[in-house]
Design a protein that fits this description.
heterodimer; A: 10 helices; B: mainly alpha
Chain lengths: 273, 281
């Protein structure tokens, strides 16, 4: 990033609990993560509050995406990886042996950096999660839920007349909103977003950001971004990662105006990264 | 001569040599097509498709029993080979690093290179000898065994081409691994798999050797899978080595039909693939 002091617009907030407050939605305790012998995350402890947007920022390779993926155990599918520590969601450790990963991933939805609609129709994409989780009892109910999810993802008006056309015919931004609708359809509590707008143009990005902002009343949202303005625009809390460590975690306005760590200040003012 | 000119000459020579090699490679194909068409069309009448073979000396007659026989044999082969081939392809791509998958891949490649007559002997051993009876079933088995490695290896390769992000998308929605494979990954590779199956069918439809002592041959019309059955290839072989002019003409016509079948299969595979891919955007 160029220039010494980026102009960052912050949302106005009235009552905003600090990240450390009371009963968190997600409570991560001394989490470390290993790719083989390499430690990618070092002893992370942080609490994520319900119905807020929490942003993870940091330079490439700092572990923010890896950390996000430990929250719904998406790293399980990678061979040779290992997790230490605890991730409590609503007080339950997601790495406990009796946890059903399938059930966990239904409750903790995920949207990926590159939109990944299935090569099926728009309708089938949104209905997929409902089908595999046996979440609707009939065609009418399913159609209702698909419509509701598409509306929540602000995509309904653009696709309502072509629900049975291929999802791959949609634009990049629409595909990403379709992936959000697909994740919302299974009614998760938490939505993890891994740089959801990094491949999109500014207008599509703006729509995703507005969407994120409107969704937080219903969901707990965790968003990874390499774009600091984006973190400032959409999030309530921001965590800054650097070389696999959590450097600082605070309310977003404080992170961008009065960071406690020198490293955070250097990063948010664009001195490196 | 400047270096520049010299370079141009060398370049032109190489381009010319490549073009010539392509032409040489095409010559056999064009000649086969030319000869088969020229010799085959004379005997290619409607009667050829709709009537049974006639005794030597009687003009006319056709290969109805052989058409039906070949269709039955390749259908039997497809029923055997498609499920086994596709599912083992899924295994090889899903468990790519494991010992069993590596062994299966090696076995498939080896089986692919086994001479078809050997596969015929294998089918003779397990499906003819125990029943003391040549049968369409044994022929279908021999052809099926030939198809399995082709389908398995192609399926494996096509599945590996499906982006990993689709799998992650399915898993993130709460799909189990098996569910993700069969509801997202296999469907994503389906156009390619269909093409592979059609091409494999076209390939085995032209096999003679594995049928000689499995399906044998049958002068009569039969659709009984436990009886010997006629096939186009064995019929062509029988007619071609006979001393009768009439039968030679029929053999040419049969060859023409077989070549056309293979050609149509290839075209069909392309059309189907293009269609399916257009449907997907």
């Amino acid at each position: 990033m160029a220039g010494p002091a980026p102009s960052v617009t912050l949302r106005e907030r009235t009552s905003d609990p600090s990240p450390a407050a009371g009963n968190p939605k997600i409570d991560v305790q001394s989490l470390s993560f290993y790719y083989g012998a390499k430690r990618a995350l070092e002893d992370i402890t942080l609490r994520i509050q319900a119905n807020l947007v929490t942003a993870f920022i940091g330079p490439s390779g700092c572990g923010k995406s890896t950390f996000l993926r430990t929250l719904n155990r998406m790293n399980d599918v990678l061979p040779g990886t290992r997790v230490d520590g605890k991730v409590l969601i609503d007080g339950q450790d997601v790495y406990a042996p009796d946890v059903d990963v399938v059930q966990l991933r239904r409750r903790v939805g995920m949207v990926f950096q590159k939109s990944n609609p299935f090569p099926k129709s728009i309708f089938e994409n949104v209905a997929y999660g409902l089908k595999i989780n046996r979440m609707s009892s009939g065609r009418a109910e399913m159609a209702g839920r698909v419509e509701e999810s598409l509306k929540q993802a602000a995509l309904w008006n653009e696709v309502k007349d072509r629900l049975h056309e291929s999802a791959l015919a949609l634009s990049g931004g629409q595909q990403q909103r379709l992936c959000i609708a697909r994740a919302l359809a299974v009614q998760p509590d938490v939505l993890l977003m891994d740089e959801p707008a990094s491949a999109l143009d500014p207008i599509a990005t703006q729509r995703i950001e507005e969407l994120v902002y409107s969704l937080k009343t219903t969901y707990t949202i965790v968003i990874v971004t390499h774009n600091m303005q984006q973190a400032a625009r959409v999030s309530d809390h921001t965590a800054f990662f650097w070389l696999g460590k959590l450097i600082e975690y605070d309310r977003t306005d404080r992170m961008f105006t009065a960071p406690r760590e020198k490293l955070t200040e250097d990063y948010v003012t664009g001195r490196f990264g | 001569m400047t270096r520049e000119t010299w370079r141009r000459i060398v370049s032109a020579l190489f381009v010319g040599a490549c073009g010539l090699a392509v032409l040489v490679a095409l010559v056999p194909l064009v000649m086969i097509l030319f000869f088969v068409v020229r010799q085959g069309v004379q005997a290619l009448t409607l009667e050829f498709f709709t009537s049974m073979p006639k005794p030597v000396g009687e003009p006319g007659g056709g290969m109805l029993n052989a058409f039906v026989g070949t269709l039955m044999l390749i259908s039997l082969a497809a029923v055997i080979a498609i499920p086994i081939g596709v599912v083992s392809g899924v295994y090889m791509s899903e468990y790519a690093g494991t010992r069993l998958a590596t062994a299966a891949r090696f076995a498939a490649d080896t089986l692919n290179g086994v001479p078809s007559i050997v596969i015929g002997i294998f089918a003779y051993g397990i499906a003819v000898l125990p029943f003391r009876q040549f049968s369409a079933l044994a022929g279908g088995l021999a052809l099926g065994v030939m198809m399995i490695p082709i389908i398995a290896r192609t399926t494996e390769e096509l599945l590996l081409l499906v982006p990993g992000s689709l799998r992650e998308g399915a898993l993130a929605l709460g799909a189990t691994r098996a569910r993700a494979v069969f509801s997202v990954i296999v469907p994503a590779a389906l156009p390619g798999i269909i093409t592979a199956v059609v091409l494999a069918l076209a390939r085995i439809a032209g096999e003679t050797a594995p049928l000689l002592f499995t399906a044998f041959n049958n002068q009569f019309f039969s659709t009984n899978v436990r009886q010997p059955i006629a096939s186009m290839t064995v019929q062509i072989f029988t007619y071609a080595i006979s001393p009768y002019e009439d039968w030679h003409r029929q053999a040419w016509a049969g060859a023409l039909v077989l070549v056309s079948f293979v050609l149509i299969c290839s075209l069909l595979a392309r059309v189907v693939t293009a269609r399916l891919q257009r449907l997907r955007g």
